[in-house]
Design brief:
With 286 residues, the protein is α/β, with parallel strands linked by helices. The chain has helices spanning 27-35, 44-53, 72-83, 104-112, 125-133, 150-160, 176-187, 211-218, 241-254, 257-268, 272-282, and strands spanning 11-15, 38-41, 62-65, 87-91, 117-120, 140-144, 166-171, 192-197, 205-210, 227-231. Strand 8 (192-197) and strand 9 (205-210) form a beta hairpin. Residues 12-215 form the Tetrapyrrole methylase domain. Residues 239-282 form the RsmI HTH domain.
Length: 286
């Protein structure tokens, strides 16, 4: 592998790094890591290890920690160095900076200060997951990590449920079971989805099915590794209110509210919560 020491223009260079396999890095990314005057890394240990794997010496260059919890002064320092003519490479721990990784405030403030911003595109867990999920990728909404607070999660899922796009979430292994349950309740248990784990790594795994099936499959399972949940578009946006109410009336005439809600929610791929509220209105209980 021929790594070149090149003359980089001053500014901030956002560099995508591997999400698993170290050889997924691009030649251009290696050239930038070998040539940048300063390297800003979300995790300096990971950056050092990646450079060692590819035979890149840090030498006497600055390696600065820059992550979500960095003080604003760190960002200001990086921008000041770039404004003074330095080339600053910014790398996340894995993947593309600014895709659920540190980067946006740095790019925003650099642009506002008139400092050039460059990109060396490459690995991204979001794009990798879309590739293997087998779900439509012509219209995609990247949601990132759902908030941990219950009320905020409900508001988020209600907000995006009707969007006619494939949804991409990042999630921690500790919360993936909860997220699958809540997505199934909020978006409809028949909505197609995929859980992508440890992408590009030795134990890569993709589990496909409906949200209801995935919620059941992961319920009693201990999960490890990085998780991306991809949810295909549902029919929620196309289901008109009158269609739901007509289906509910017919179902309520045959059975209980509980059975009617389950039947209509599954048939129209609607969140049970919404169907239940409509059923209560029809029954005069709300």
């Amino acid at each position: 592998m021929d790594i070149q020491h090149i003359s980089l223009p001053p500014g901030i260079h956002f560099v995508a790094t591997p999400i698993g396999a170290a050889r997924d890095i691009t030649l251009r990314a290696l050239d930038i890591l070998a040539s940048a005057d300063v390297i800003a890394a979300e995790d300096t240990r990971t950056a050092r290890h990646l450079m060692q794997i590819h035979g890149i010496a840090l030498g006497d260059r600055l390696l600065i920690a820059y992550h979500d919890h960095s003080a604003p002064g760190v960002r200001d320092k990086l921008i000041a160095m770039a404004a003074a003519g330095k080339s600053v490479a910014c790398v996340s721990e894995a993947g593309t900076p600014m895709v659920a990784d540190p980067g946006y405030p740095l790019a925003r403030d650099a642009i506002a200060a008139g400092v050039p911003v460059h990109t060396a595109p490459g690995p991204s867990a979001m794009l990798a997951a879309l590739t293997v999920a087998g779900l439509p990728s012509d219209r995609v909404l990247f949601v990132g990590f759902p908030p941990p607070q219950a009320a905020a999660r409900r508001a988020l899922f209600d907000e995006i449920g009707g969007i006619a796009a494939t949804l991409v979430f990042y999630e921690s292994p500790r919360r993936v079971r909860r997220t699958l349950r809540e997505l199934s309740d909020a978006l409809g248990e028949m909505r197609p989805a995929a859980v992508c784990r440890e992408l590009t790594k030795r134990f890569e795994e993709v589990t496909r099915g409906t949200l209801g099936e995935l919620a059941a499959a992961f319920e009693g399972r201990e999960v490890k590794g990085e998780i991306v949940v991809v949810v295909g578009r549902g029919m929620r946006a196309a289901a008109a209110l009158e269609d739901m109410e007509a289906a509910l009336r017919a179902a309520l005439a045959r059975g209980s509210v509980k059975d009617a809600v389950a039947e209509v929610a599954a048939a129209l791929d609607l969140p049970r919560r919404d169907v239940y509220r409509a059923a209560l209105r029809l029954e005069g209980k709300e």
